């Protein structure tokens, strides 16, 4: 009989895959196989980081954030640039979920299941945006992208507490604030399909930030540190962007931010 598959090792293989279509199909297959009970999870293995993390295609060309172009929503090209920027974030989000899954040993089993769920949803988000981009006459890679999300993933590779604090509950949480105004712009420009995709993204991202918050609080408890003060310390130590408003307080509340933290966001 075949050996059962190990989830963290398989997540690492998907992370290394450079092709977006193959990577997202691979993630969907992992989610389905996990649901069928085909995986074991080795919570103790210290896996070595191979060369080639993250696997990504030659295009889009990565440029500093200020050089990523923006155009008016009144033109198809302008809308395509926005959809491309969102697709690029989702592609990075697939990688960040896979990285959270394979890299950190010693977490409870639910941690790995949670991040597999995130990877699966990010893969769906990417594919929805890529399909919509195609209806506008463009493909993923046609515009430039920036790498700020992945840079924070790399900086926090040595500590799962810093990773949970600064990637899901900082960078993904910015999506909660950013999506509603973008949705309104796209709807106003008459792109109801894009608006409907952003509704799905917002709903799922609340869940991703909730996962980040939950594991952040678990780790703070384990280490006996105070969550709000520790977060402030980590943003300084890792030079993380300080959250800027306007904030989507309702979505942040649903995603598990405490009232004490929400008070700092107003
Ligand atoms: Fe997403
Ligand atoms: Fe997400």
Give an overview in words:
There is one protein chain. Helix content is 65%, strand content 2%. The chain has 2 domains: 1-56 and 66-146; 147-266, no CATH class. With 266 residues, it is mostly helical. The N and C termini lie far apart (58 Å). It has helices at 7-16, 20-35, 76-103, 109-135, 148-155, 160-188, 192-223, 227-237, 249-254, 259-264, and strands at 5-6, 39-40. The mean pLDDT is 95. A two-stranded parallel ribbon has the order 1-2. Bound molecules: fe (ii) ion (2 copies). The site of one fe (ii) ion has 6 residues, from helix 3, helix 4 and helix 7. Residues 93, 118, 122, 172, 205, 208 line the site of one fe (ii) ion (FE2).
How is the secondary structure organized here?
Blueprint: E1 5-6, H1 7-16, H2 20-35, E2 39-40, H3 76-103, H4 109-135, H5 148-155, H6 160-188, H7 192-223, H8 227-237, H9 249-254, H10 259-264
Parallel strand pairs: 1-2
Helix pairs in contact: 1-2, 1-3, 2-4, 3-4, 4-7, 5-6, 6-7
This protein binds fe (ii) ion (2 copies).
The site of one fe (ii) ion has 6 residues, from helix 4 and helix 7.
At a glance:
The protein is mainly α. It is built from ten helices and two strands; from the N terminus they run E-H-H-E-H-H-H-H-H-H-H-H.
């Amino acid at each position: 009989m075949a050996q059962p598959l190990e989830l963290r090792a398989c997540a690492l293989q998907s992370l290394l895959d450079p092709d977006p279509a193959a990577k997202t199909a691979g993630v969907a297959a992992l989610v389905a196989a996990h649901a069928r009970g085909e995986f074991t999870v080795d919570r103790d293995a210290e896996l070595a980081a191979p060369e080639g993390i993250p696997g990504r295609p030659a295009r889009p060309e990565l440029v500093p954030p200020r050089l990523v172009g923006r155009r008016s929503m009144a033109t198809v090209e302008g809308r395509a640039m926005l959809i491309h920027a969102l697709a690029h974030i989702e592609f990075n989000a697939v990688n960040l979920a896979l990285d959270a899954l394979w890299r950190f040993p010693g977490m409870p089993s639910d941690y790995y299941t949670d991040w597999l769920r995130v990877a699966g949803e990010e893969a769906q988000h990417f594919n929805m945006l890529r399909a919509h981009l195609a209806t506008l006459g463009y493909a993923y890679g046609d515009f430039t992208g920036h790498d700020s999300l992945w840079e924070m993933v790399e900086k926090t590779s040595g500590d799962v507490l810093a990773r949970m604090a600064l990637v899901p509950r900082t960078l993904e949480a910015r999506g909660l604030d950013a999506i509603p105004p973008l949705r309104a712009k796209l709807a106003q420009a008459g792109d109801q399909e894009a608006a409907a995709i952003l509704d799905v993204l917002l709903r799922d991202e609340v869940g991703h930030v909730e996962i980040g918050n939950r594991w952040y609080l678990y780790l703070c408890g384990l280490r006996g540190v105070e969550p709000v003060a520790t977060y402030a310390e980590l943003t300084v130590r890792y030079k993380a962007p300080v959250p800027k408003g306007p904030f989507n307080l309702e979505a942040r509340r649903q995603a598990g931010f405490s009232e004490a933290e929400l008070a700092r966001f107003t």
